[in-house]
Amino acid sequence: MDAEKMNAVNKAVRKQLILSVVLSCMLVAGIPMIIFGASNRIWLVMGAGILFTVLGFYGTPMAWVSYGNKVGLRRVVYAVTREHLLAVEKISAQLGKPEKNIRALLDECFQKGYLPGYVRQGDTISLNEAKAPEETLHAAVCPYCGAKYTYRGTEEPVCPYCGAMSEKKGE
To answer: Which residues cross the membrane (predicted)?
Structure first.
């Protein structure tokens, strides 16, 4: 299960790494393309070189900074899922970052869905024990035959013994 939780953040880190490398290569390849295209009057190559250089020049720094941020998020997810550090104070001590920064990183991890199955309550993190309504079992007593039975939250309460329908609680 921990591998599934790490999978989403690892995928995001991998995508960002690929983008960063591609933009870096575009920057490096763009300048020779401009020179080659201009000297041989191949305007398409020169235009592509200009485009590569501009995208690489402006995109590379932003992509690498974003990659670093995603690696930081991955480290927080690892601390929670693998090291079982479930308090902001403990994560902060482990990572050597201020608690304020850890809170912001945790907010981002929860917002991006990198910590499914966990809930944050203030400065503590715990496993989400809540069940979806379709998974919740309810107890019922048949008003006609008196039999005790259970039904799922999304089902109608029908007695399995006499077939009579009961009313759902709270309705």
So the answer is: 17-36, 42-65
Per DSSP, helices labelled H in the chain are 2-39, 43-81, 88-95, 99-112
Measured CA to CA, the distance from residue 143 to residue 158 in angstroms comes to 11
Q: Are 81 and 7 in contact (CB under 8 A)?
A: no
Instruction: Give dist(CA 148, CA 49) in Å, integer.
Output: 76
Which residue shows structure tokens 């907010």?
Answer: 107
Q: Could you tell me if 56 and 48 are in contact, meaning their C-beta atoms sit under 8 angstroms apart?
A: no
Query: What CA dihedral angle connects 59, 5, 84 and 95, to 10 degrees?
Result: 0
Strand partners, 149: 140
| CA 9 centroid distance within chain | 6
* pTM, two decimal places: 0.70
Task: Provide the residue-wise pLDDT of the chain in tens; the chain has 171 residues.
Answer: 456 657 889 999 999 999 999 999 999 999 999 999 999 999 999 999 999 999 999 999 999 999 999 999 999 999 998 999 999 999 999 999 999 999 999 999 999 989 988 999 999 998 887 766 566 777 888 888 888 888 877 778 888 888 888 776 544
Nearest to 80 by CA among 12, 4, 6, 13: 6
